[in-house]
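For reproducibility, we list the full input for the S-adenosylmethionine complex.
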Amino acid sequence: MTEQLAAVVQKARTEVAIDALRAEGVYDDERGVFECGPETVAIPVTRPPVATDVREVVVDETRTAPETLPDLLGEWGWSEAELDRAPTSWAVVGSVVLVRVTDVPRPTEVGEALLALVGGVDTVLAHSGIAGPHREPEVEVLAGEGDTETVHREHGTEYALDLSEVMFSPGNQAERTRMGERVQTGERVLDTFAGIGYFTLPMARAGATVTAVERNPAAFAYLVENVVRNGVADSVETYRADCREIVDGFAAGTTFDRVVMGHYDAHGYLADTLAVLAPGGTVHVHATTPGKLLPERPTRRVRRAVDGTDRTVDSMAVRRVKTYSEGVFHVVVDATFE
Ligand SMILES: C[S@@+](CC[C@H](N)C(=O)[O-])C[C@H]1O[C@@H](n2cnc3c(N)ncnc32)[C@H](O)[C@@H]1O
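The corresponding predicted structure, in tokenized form, follows.
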């Protein structure tokens, strides 16, 4: 927002000065006159006057900046119909705002407005989805410097990442925190779809020893960087590989107390993974499920995957992580095995 100016004059000269400023063509009649000292007032002007005698020109700070996106877009001339289609939510990841602008009019203006409204950010990205087996984001710079590499801080954990290369789900925050809270010091954890360390980092910071597997080279590079950045290099072992190959290749007798499977197709990998779960161990199996199929579908998928193995399920609980799409939820099944 550009600065709003006001010309300071003696109170007794208010009317005369307004007339003179109006005659000069700089009086701003959309804002009010305000007191700025015991004997002076400030008269709003559109630019510093040259013909009218004033004491000084100051910035008018009585006018608060618009606080909401609709307020600001309204000031920029958006019609009511356009405002109805403006985004109502966005996410801040480090120094970047992520916003969906599908069906939104004037997306560049939305970007500029978010840049002006959201503190501490320098780039606004339009986010249209996550695609492919490596869960790569589809983004486009809407406003700002266009620097997509950033460091996101969450409960003391630092996630360095490039939002044009790897995904980050702000909606998974509670689940990332929960994973850090669930582990005991010294627990052995396997994270089969580690990404940049979404779950590995909070768990390692909480005292777990983590084996983290990620096959996407870009995500893996950030995983390694983040392990060092968070001071957990001594307790995290990283593999750039397909998790199935890593599980198959573990030395006989290798087991983990907990396995985190943060991928929507995790149930397809579950049977193989159970081979390395210690007796009494827990697996966190992520999935997407229509709300009307909860909790049966995700628990049934876990039971089916376990059929034919020598393991039995001891207990299962389903948690909603976030809304995935209309009527569909990202869920996680916490399953413990005998
Ligand atoms: C959905 S992302 C991780 C999501 C993360 N758990 C979160 O909460 O935001 C899944 C990751 O698993 C990786 N991935 C997919 N299949 C894999 C496999 N077979 N082995 C290892 N990594 C895999 C992808 O590259 C991606 O980085």
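Residues 133-135, 167, 169, 172, 193, 195, 198, 213-216, 219, 242-243, 262-263 surround S-adenosylmethionine (CB under 6 Å). The chain is about 25% helix and 35% strand. Both points were considered when choosing residues for closer inspection.
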